[in-house]
Structures are given as C-alpha cells and as structure tokens.
Amino acid sequence: MDSRERVWRAVEFEGPDRVPFEWYEYGVGVLDLKRTDIAGVGFKPLQGSWSEAGNEIRYVDEWGCIWVSYKSLPTIGRPIVHPLQNWDNINNYKFPELSLEKRFEGVDKEVKRLRNLGKYIVGWLGAGIWARTRFLRGFREALADLYMHRDRIYKLLEFLTEFKIGLIRGYSELDIDCVAFTDDWGTQSRLFINPKIWVEVFRPYYMRIFKEAKKRGLHTYIHSCGNIYDIIGYWVKDGLNIIQMDAPHQVGLERLSKYAGKICFNCCIDIQKILVRGVESEIYEEAKKMIELLGCEDGGFIARQYPQLAHIKVKPEVNEIAYKAFLKF
User: E strands, 132-187, where?
Assistant: First the structure.
C-alpha cells in the first residue's frame, strides 16, 4: 500500500495498513519525504515584494497586506498594515486576479514528481476566508463589522469564497487528492465570536467551498487552532474531511472523540502540554490515547509533526520519540 492509498483509506474509513504520517524535517518546515505520506503543492502569488532592514524582514503580499518577521526567528510573521482597515479604501481597492494559468504555471511538474513518489497530494489554498478577512480589515475591525457593518463582512466573504472556488477548479485539473487552507477560530477557551454568529455568517461559505471540492473529487482539509469545539460538528455535517489541530488539548481528546469515525483528525502530540515537556513516557501514552480516541478500526487519524519545532524549543531527539510512538501504535 503506497502513501496515497494509505491516506485515502484513513480519510474514507476504509482500513489503511497503518496510521499515515504528515512529517517534516526538523526545524525547517520542509517535508521529510522518507517518512511523510502527505505532501503539498501551492499556487504562485501574482505579486509580492520583500525588504530587509537589520533584523527585520517585511513582505507585501498580493492583497496589499504588509507582514513583518525577523531573521533571528524566521516565522511567517504577522500583518501590521491592513489595506482595508479604513473601509473608505474599498472604493479604490483592487482585489487580486484569479488568472489560473499564471498561478498554476509549473505546478504540474511538482505534482508529477510527488505522484511518482506515491504521495497523497494536498493543494494549498492559502489563508482561509476568516483569516484573510481579518488580514485585510484588521482583527478588531473585522470583529466590530460582525456587529455593526455586516455588509462589509459579506462583501469580503463573497469574493474570498469565489476566489477559493476558482483555485479549487484550477487544482482539479491536476492529479491531486485534497485542497487545504488555514483558518484559526479559537482562543484557548472558546471561539473568537458567538457560535450563533459563526453559523449565521460563515457556515454557508464553508459549505460552498466543501461542496465545490467534493463535486470535483477532492478531499478538504482545514487547520484551525484554539478551542473550536463549537464549530467542529458543523464542519463534520457539511463535509469537511480532515481537521488539523496542533494542540488538541485545547478542546480535549475526550470531547473530540465524539467525532471519531465521522471526520479524519490530523494531530500532533499536543505542542502546549505534552511535546514541549519532552518526557518519553508521556509522549508514548499520548500517542496511544490519541489514536484510540480520535481514530477507529477503519482509520480516521493522521499523525503529524509540528513543522517548526525549533520555534517551540523541542529538540530533534524528542521529535524522534514522537515519530516512534505514533509508529508503534
């Protein structure tokens, strides 16, 4: 059984030969192609520029957001300029063009390379519809819009959803298996917003994205941090295939087990409570518990490595313990 079949069987609950892996080389966020079953490809942004000043790196993305990061801690950074923070700017704002031919130029070659390696291939859609909304507006402004200017939120969500659907159409022309994006929705204890507002405003847009992917024979995969218990059930009902969580203890394994057999969990050894302690017995116990509670006999669980372990000061030998623990169980 190759990696592609292994992951498909895990996601579809058709009995893989073992738990699949999404695994990376230590500290650099590059896939470990000897160990991982899942590999990703991405479209090309049409615009973007970089500048450096001392330790600081600034990046202007194709949406006009300005990001800052630092050479001493090379993370994705954070947006510090939001082009639509002043809503009056909407009159002159130019949304990025879809231009699928330009965005997907050369991606087919990488897909072919990964297909020859037998990997399950994920096409990355970038920041999710909520993430991009707050990048454009600013976090405070986006939250306020939900209560005071919801028409603004709907305008952005409509464009962003259609943009994602356009990218899905592009990926469907390639030999890939899944489309994925990131949309962090939770604090440590709850959603950023009232769950009733999430259902009313955001759920219909996710449903459109899931429906488009399913129509084209693709799985869907969302990374979402925080305690997102209040919305997982809706994602399950609406057809999300894979939910990726780096700190599942924010929700609780027992609570998440309610959805075992209904959605495929893709999880690390919890990066906040377990992995950072580096205790071998705890890591083995956690791997066993996660597979038992979140998976089932027919699949439903993918073992993941947090891609940027150096950022949370987890040593390579601890990561090796996690890999062996998942492999054992």
Answer: 178-182
Residue 300 has φ and ψ, to the nearest 5°, of 90, 5
Query: CB within 8 A of 27, min separation 6: which ones?
Result: 308, 309, 310, 316
Torsion angle defined by CA atoms of residues 73, 75, 80 and 85, in that order, rounded to the nearest 10 degrees = -170
Q: What SS3 class is residue 149?
A: coil
d(CA 270, CA 248): 6
Of 280, 223, 282, 288, the closest CA to residue 253 belongs to: 288
Provide block-wise average pLDDT over 10 residues at a time, the chain (329 residues).
98 97 89 97 95 94 96 87 98 96 97 98 97 98 97 98 98 97 95 97 98 98 96 98 95 96 97 95 97 95 94 93 96
Both tokens of 6, joined, read: 């292994």
